[in-house]
Design a protein that fits this description.
It is a single chain. The chain has a domain of 193 residues: Ribonuclease Inhibitor (Leucine-rich repeat, LRR (right-handed beta-alpha superhelix), Alpha-Beta Horseshoe), CATH 3.80.10. With 590 residues, the protein is of the alpha/beta class. The protein is built from five helices and 36 strands. The two termini are 58 Å apart. Strand 1 and strand 2 form a beta hairpin. Bound molecules: 2-acetamido-2-deoxy-beta-D-glucopyranose (12 copies).
């Protein structure tokens, strides 16, 4: 058994170390190195997760982020992730030290402020390092040459520029290469196809150009290829998905059509080609295993392939094909995609009815059918989507009345039916939709007297450009969180009720072009009010703050006014913050 000695420790620590020496079996050189490292971190770095009061100095294997072999006879992994590391001097003292641990297989220094990689780490002199993680540091300059033993190399979230060097292929055992979120330019070297053990190639968010090299399609170990948010051009290479489970080429400048077998490869789970310039139609055959398919914001045309979605795609959970040029009807066979949670068909040229079969898809949370040419009525069955959070059918030509069954959507937060051809009233049962924060019904032909409204509306209530009539509904007085109220261009009559001025969150109220009469009440000056185009409104004379109270108390009045204004501002800030927080909590990402 070895005696563990720490380099130049204070005397009492040395005694402590000697007393406890029996628990330590690391080679003395590794122990020395670790204690030097500890000292270095203590001296230069006050946020380190290591310090002498919390670490058992004799047993580095017990320190946070240190992993040893099973009998603690040598160190195998060192994770200094989020240790607030920065380069102390030009000799990168701390990382050079690490190289002394020749048994080290994995070094993770992610989430620090390191500006350079210590040269010993790049050379084989550092031993058999297999994993090097420099993610989220401050590396700049070109990608250096690394030691060839590496299997996983993560340089993501730095400031590296220049090209991906051809020499990268010298890292013959590489299985994970993550260069995402840097400033790399140039094209992917075709030689990358020689990395025959690569499983993940992640190049997202750089400035890479040129075509996606075909040799990538030959790497039969590759499971994930992400090259999104670059400036790649040319076509999606044929056979790119042959071995892949995950493909992300979104946010590039790819052209041409989607290869007909691209989506049908049996291992595929996720394909994202959104935000490119792809043309042609959506391939008919889609892999049974597909979970997430995003083809939005391209120039795709033709119809939604009806038979393949359905029986063939039972796992499909996210289908996003919005913002294309798709035509035809929404295929009722979509009902067979039982796991569908997000359906985005918006901004296309789809026509015909909304199939009632959508009501079978009881895992739907987000439905976006807006900006199409859909006609006919909103099917009652939509009300069966128990966990629907967002329904957007705006900007179509839907007619008929709003089905009262929609009020069964008790999880609904955003309902947008604006710019359609809907008639009839707002169903009374809408008063029970307690989570609804946004109701957009503008530009329809809705009408009648409003008796009941959802009670927690917050983002907006927009009833503009309809045929609503009667007095401004009393039920509005409960909407204490509402920010935008648009009742303009209707036939509301009677007076403007005082309770509107008490709606504390209101920032905008549009009452123009109605049949309102009487005195316009005094709104808070921060509320944007529009009232023009009514028949007979009286405006109160502009009031000025009561400064006319002349006397020796003027100064103290001023103080009272000032301090109450200040607390009002504070209160508003609190309310606004609370509203923002609440809204974030309620919003769903997609
Ligand atoms: C040592 O670490 C512990 C726990 O991480 C911390 O509470 C303590 O303040 C640190 N002491 C010094 C001197 O940094
Ligand atoms: C600890 O394990 C290694 C192999 O991992 C072995 O070579 C060594 O002899 C073991 N040491 C002791 C003291 O058991
Ligand atoms: C590198 O570290 C980051 C952050 O700790 C982690 O998310 C990432 O998965 C690591 N990379 C590899 C290749 O293990
Ligand atoms: C690559 O890995 C194999 C074992 O899988 C090993 O024999 C070989 O030495 C490694 N190559 C390098 C350059 O480290
Ligand atoms: C990307 O590269 C092009 C030229 O290749 C250059 O004009 C552009 O500024 C670069 N963009 C960024 C964000 O580096
Ligand atoms: C789609 O798949 C079917 C059955 O697997 C096959 O017969 C057909 O040729 C495929 N169509 C295309 C366009 O690949
Ligand atoms: C549907 O989703 C559930 C969990 O969300 C999953 O367990 C199930 O396997 C999925 N069904 C299919 C056919 O993929
Ligand atoms: C919607 O359909 C009508 C006829 O049904 C057609 O005239 C119009 O151009 C279509 N609009 C769009 C945006 O496709
Ligand atoms: C709305 O419905 C009316 C009457 O049915 C019809 O004349 C009109 O063309 C429709 N408008 C739109 C935009 O669909
Ligand atoms: C809705 O429009 C369709 C034509 O698009 C028409 O056949 C139907 O009668 C209309 N329904 C109502 C209730 O106006
Ligand atoms: C509906 O979609 C339109 C356009 O995509 C968008 O502007 C609007 O905010 C959406 N409505 C809701 C409630 O999300
Ligand atoms: C209310 O909806 C109408 C019709 O879509 C729209 O034009 C208007 O801008 C909306 N009002 C507000 C305040 O956003």
């Amino acid at each position: 058994m070895r005696v563990c000695v720490r380099m130049s420790p204070p005397l009492f620590l040395l005694l402590l170390v000697i007393i406890q020496y029996a628990s330590c079996e690391l080679p003395s050189f590794q122990l020395t190195t670790m204690n030097t490292l500890l000292q270095l971190l203590q001296t230069h770095n006050h946020n380190s997760k290591w310090n002498s009061s919390s670490q058992d100095l004799t047993n580095p294997c017990s320190w946070t982020g240190v992993l040893c072999n099973p009998n603690n006879s040598f160190i195998t992994e060192l994770s200094l992730s989020s240790f607030s590391l920065f380069d102390i001097s030009n000799d990168y003292s701390w990382s050079s030290l690490v190289c002394g641990i020749e048994t080290l297989e994995k070094l993770d220094v992610s989430n620090n402020q390191l500006a350079a990689i210590a040269p010993p780490l790049l050379l084989s002199s550092c031993g058999g390092l297999k994993v090097l993680n420099f993610s989220n540091n401050m590396l700049s300059g070109n990608i250096p040459s690394f030691q060839t033993t590496l299997e996983r190399l993560d340089l993501s979230h730095n400031f590296l520029h220049g090209v991906i060097p051809d020499q990268i292929t010298e890292l013959v055992n590489l299985s994970v290469l993550d260069l995402s979120y840097n400033r790399l330019s140039g094209s992917i070297p075709a030689s990358i196809g020689q990395l025959s053990r690569l499983q993940q190639l992640i190049l997202s968010a750089n400035n890479l150009t040129g075509e996606i090299p075909t040799p990538i399609t030959l790497i039969n170990t590759l499971k994930r290829f992400s090259a999104n948010q670059n400036a790649f051009t040319g076509a999606v290479p044929l056979g790119i998905t042959r071995y892949l489970s995950y493909l992300d080429l979104s946010y590039n400048r790819l052209t041409g059509s989607v290869p007909s077998d691209l989506l049908s490869q049996p291992n595929l789970l996720t394909v994202d080609l959104s935000f490119n310039k792809l043309e042609g139609s959506i391939p008919v055959n889609v892999s049974k295993s597909m979970v997430r398919l995003r083809l939005g914001s391209n120039q795709l045309s033709g119809g939604l392939p009806s038979w393949s979605f359905g029986n063939e795609v039972p796992s499909l959970t996210y289908l996003e094909v919005g913002n294309n040029r798709l035509t035809g009807m929404i295929p009722p066979e979509l009902r067979l995609c039982k796991n569908l949670s997000l359906l985005d068909l918006s901004h296309n040229r789809l026509f015909g009815y909304v199939p009632r079969e959508l009501g079978d898809l009881n895992k739907l949370q987000v439905v976006q059918l807006d900006h199409n040419n859909l006609t006919g009525e909103i099917p009652n069955e939509i009300g069966e989507l128990q966990i629907l959070v967002r329904l957007n059918m705006s900007w179509n030509s839907l007619n008929g009345s709003i089905p009262p069954s929609l009020s069964n959507l008790q999880k609904l937060i955003n309902l947008d039916l604006q710019v359609n051809n809907l008639t009839g009233p707002i169903p009374d049962s809408f008063g029970t939709m307690n989570l609804l924060l946004e109701l957009q019904l503008g530009r329809n032909r809705l009408g009648g007297v409003i008796r009941s409204l959802p009670t927690n509306l917050q983002i907006a209530l927009n009833l503009s450009r309809n045929n609503f009539e009667g007095p401004i509904p009393q039920s509005l007085s409960r909407l204490q969180s509402l920010e935008i109220l648009d009742l303009s261009n209707n036939r509301f009559n009677g007076g403007i009720p005082n309770f509107l001025t008490q709606m504390g969150s209101l920032t905008q109220i549009l009452l123009s072009n109605n049949l309102l009469t009487g005195l316009v009440p005094q709104f808070h000056k921060n509320v944007n009010v529009s009232t023009e185009g009514n028949i007979n409104l009286l405006y109160p004379p502009p009031t000025s703050p009561s400064v006319d109270r002349k006397n020796n108390n003027a100064a103290s009045v001023g103080i009272v006014v000032a301090s109450s204004t200040a607390s009002l501002v504070e209160l508003m800030v609190v309310v606004i913050v609370a509203v923002i927080v609440l809204r974030k909590v309620h919003r769903i990402n997609h």
